[in-house]
Amino acid sequence: LYYMESFNLWGNYGVMIKNIYLRKDGGTSIAEFTQFRDDVAEKLDFEKFGASFPSGAIIDNLQTQLSLNVAINNSFIQVWERQAGRSFTYDLMELTKDEFQLLPTILLQVKASDVASMTNNETFGSVGNVGSTLDPDSPNDIVIAIPSSLYMTEEKNGFYRMQIVWSNQGSILGTSIFQKKQLVFDPDSYRTVSYT
């Protein structure tokens, strides 16, 4: 079980995004290929994102897409293009299955609840603890891996389209990134429980 601290964000359950990373060469696990080396998982320029209000994100089961605060737009696109070796576009991209799977994986670092998670950062699932390599000050924070299959859709055989939305109203974690996961909202202790 992974416990994310939640708060009321415009009448919805919100979680606090503390950092965003992009990992080169994709992967569905939080610890794919090599365990969070700096040259694999690159931290985005979070200063503007963190200073914007809110830097939290709504968990919304009515929205399917991942919506990110527009403050992170430039940094995200620059790093994504460098890692992917291609232009970021909303036009259809013609990709082989291997090329698609090797597109960067988004890693969201979310503030953990005071309740200790019942796993450690050695987990190889798509959700886990961030660990001391990426953030020695907050090793118990939760990290969620979002591979290309969760932020792009295949519209026809071999042609894919980007589904990330940029918003001036903050971030929204839509249902697409929680596929094959279960979320339990605990209003009594005001924490959000995520487990696979």
Q: What do you see in this structure?
A:
The protein is of the alpha+beta class and 196 residues long. Helices cover 15% and strands 37% of the residues. It contains 5 helices and 15 strands. It has helices spanning 47-51, 73-84, 97-101, 131-134, 148-151; strands at residues 2-9, 12-23, 41-43, 56-59, 66-69, 93-94, 105-110, 127-129, 142-146, 152-156, 159-162, 165-167, 171-173, 182-186, 191-195. Strands 1, 2, 3, 4, 5, 7, 8, 9, 12, 13, 14 and 15 form a 12-stranded mixed sheet that branches. Residues 118-124 have low confidence and may be disordered.
Total of helices? 5
Percent of residues in helices comes to: 10-25%
Structural class: alpha+beta
SSE string: EEEHEEHEHEEHEHEEEEEE
The low-confidence parts are: 118-124
- CA(first)-CA(last) distance: 8 Å
Give the overall pLDDT as a whole number: 80
Report the biggest beta sheet as strand number plus sense, adding barrel if it closes: 12 strands, mixed
**Which overall shape is indicated by the principal axes computed on the Cα atoms?**
globular
**Fraction of residues in β-strands:** 35-45%
Count of β-strands:
15
